[in-house]
């Protein structure tokens, strides 16, 4: 159980370590593991699991993203008010002035859903702890060095006593980057028993215990001239981060970056929030926040083009960044192929 671990929390970012190896006192989503057993075979292990009795006290779940942000709502983490895990605010130019100068202003709301990475191979690990105090694990991870770092910290072993071997890995698509059940339970049990331990998630376990693409609600307000020239854009993004932060700061950054590329945008403002809910935590998946952002921005651009009776391709070419342009936040474009 969690009480058999050193009690140190983990996370891919040093400043945001907020998760126990095995939950202690409180579980925050349905796949939050609380105990692990080792046995001679899978059937015996399943029988042992059936003998474990856990006394749960049901708590009100936080499931609705916008209700989670309200004052006085139930907290996923006791120390975090309004369940706001992270927030970032960007402002370049003068969006209000841009809206006043615009011939047409449109405001829309878009939402994306949780999606699975779609790999066929579930998370798995084989761990061996030798008599000399050295731990070797074979794990189908994308990031073996960060896994070694997290195991060193949470298991209390120095780096030079941990070896992580990454065999050929099938599809991962961002879903096998961070520490998860097999990668820490198998080493923990191997250290306790002195025997090699193998742990493989079933696909249903993998679906509820690991990471998925983060769902986001966007509220976007955009001002343009009659000819389709973009003048200003304001975006409010609310990310359903699930029970833990994981790589949230990177996602928030990518939303801001993706909002200002690939079009000229003289005035831009972003308010972005990652919210804790009692759902599985989320992680990068091919694009890491940018896919969701471009879906929302491009969808609205189509709507604006239709309203102004402008060809959707024409409005994009008119506003496309060119080589040598400088974005509103000061990035110099050294290569741009959209117009081609």
From TrEMBL:
GO MF annotation: an example: oxidoreductase activity
Aldehyde oxidase/xanthine dehydrogenase a/b hammerhead domain mapped to chain residues: 1-60
UniProt-listed SMART domains: Ald_Xan_dh_C
One Pfam family matching this protein: Ald_Xan_dh_C
SUPFAM superfamilies with a match to the protein in the record: CO dehydrogenase molybdoprotein N-domain-like, Molybdenum cofactor-binding domain
Protein name stated in the entry: Aldehyde oxidase/xanthine dehydrogenase a/b hammerhead domain-containing protein
């Amino acid at each position: 159980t969690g009480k058999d671990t050193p009690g140190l929390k983990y996370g891919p970012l040093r400043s945001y370590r907020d998760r126990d190896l095995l939950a202690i006192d409180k579980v925050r989503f349905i796949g939050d593991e609380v105990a692990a057993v080792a046995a001679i075979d899978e059937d015996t292990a399943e029988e042992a699991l059936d003998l474990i009795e856990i006394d749960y006290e049901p708590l009100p779940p936080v499931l609705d993203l916008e209700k989670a942000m309200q004052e006085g709502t139930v907290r996923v983490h006791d120390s975090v008010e309004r369940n706001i895990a992270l927030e970032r605010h960007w402002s370049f130019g003068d969006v209000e002035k841009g809206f006043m100068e615009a011939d047409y202003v449109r405001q829309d709301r878009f939402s994306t859903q949780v999606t699975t990475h779609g790999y066929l191979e579930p998370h798995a690990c084989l761990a061996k702890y030798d008599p000399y105090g050295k731990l070797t694990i074979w794990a189908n991870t994308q990031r073996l060095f960060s896994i070694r770092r997290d195991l060193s910290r949470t298991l209390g072993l120095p780096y030079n006593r941990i070896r992580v071997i990454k065999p050929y890995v099938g599809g991962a698509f961002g879903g096998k980057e961070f520490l998860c059940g097999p990668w820490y339970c198998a080493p923990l049990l191997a250290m306790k028993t002195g025997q090699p331990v193998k742990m493989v998630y079933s696909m249903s376990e993998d679906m509820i215990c690991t990471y998925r693409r983060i769902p986001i609600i966007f509220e976007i307000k955009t001002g343009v001239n009659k000819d389709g020239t973009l003048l200003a854009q304001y975006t409010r993004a609310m990310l359903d981060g699930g029970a833990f932060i994981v790589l949230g700061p990177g996602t928030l950054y990518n939303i801001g970056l993706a909002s200002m590329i690939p079009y000229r945008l003289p005035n831009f403002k972003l308010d972005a929030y990652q919210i804790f809910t009692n759902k599985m935590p989320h992680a990068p998946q091919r694009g890491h926040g940018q896919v969701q952002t471009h879906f929302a921005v491009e969808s609205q651009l189509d709507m604006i083009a239709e309203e102004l009776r402008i060809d959707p391709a024409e409005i994009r070419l008119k506003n496309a960044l060119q080589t040598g342009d400088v974005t509103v936040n000061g990035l110099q474009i050294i290569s741009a192929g959209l117009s081609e």
